[in-house]
Amino acid sequence: MIGLSTYAYFWQHSELAPARLDLHAMLRDTAARGVEVFQICDYAPLAEMTPDALQAVARTAGDLGVTLELGTKGVSPEHLRSFLQIADHLGAKLVRSMLFSPTERPTAAEAETSLREVLPAYDEAGVTLALETYEQVASTDLVSLVEAVGHPRLGICLDPANSVAALENPRDVIDRTQPYVVNLHVKDFAFTRRGGWVGFTLEGAPLGTGLLDYDYLVEKVRPDERGINQIIEHWLPLGESIDETIAQENTWNTHNLNYLRSR
What we know:
Keywords: Carbohydrate metabolism, Isomerase. GO terms for molecular function: isomerase activity. This protein is α/β, with parallel strands linked by helices. The chain has helices at residues 23-32, 51-64, 77-90, 108-125, 139-149, 170-177, 214-221, 223-226, 242-262; strands at 2-5, 37-41, 67-71, 94-97, 128-132, 154-158, 181-186, 188-193, 200-205, 230-232. It has one domain (2-262): Alpha-Beta Barrel (TIM Barrel).
């Protein structure tokens, strides 16, 4: 299924927004767009929400017919257990994470030990853990870790755009990770010359207008056949004003949903 993420509402729930959206408002907009999946990803207020507040979000999602997924950073057992509890309150069956967090940078051996310790609890709860491709960890190392752990509840959240910053070719990342993909982050990207023609800027673009080879991604991963959700994200820079940026964010959401639905 096609989904939206808190990253698709990045500026609308930021502190700069004149009418800041909370999770309930984002869920209502998601449902109004005919979207059935919403990933709460790297959303700081989540960790401070009480069980009652989390269950209220779950009720809103249920009433709207929206399935919830989660996203965080880090693989320490304590942290992943805390997000398993949050997933339980929300009824989420997928937690996306990254190897590194602001407070931890485990070695491959340390990450393997942590994952082996916590995955039985995820398995018992019926929750899948998806480690995302991104520039701080080579995709070869991420695949090696997933293979070493070898647990059916551990997979990869594939975002080909992220690894470009580490000079990895998106097609290579897709080819390497596709057997283990359990979640997709779909965002387009482009390089533009910086002022004075000194260097480049890597930033987001509406789907189909940048360098993401979406057709190749779908051909290799086969998300519909494998039941893999495609979660829309953006790299949308702040424009001349927050109001203009929010309007652009909504335009991109409309465009990107139409693009995926037309493929």
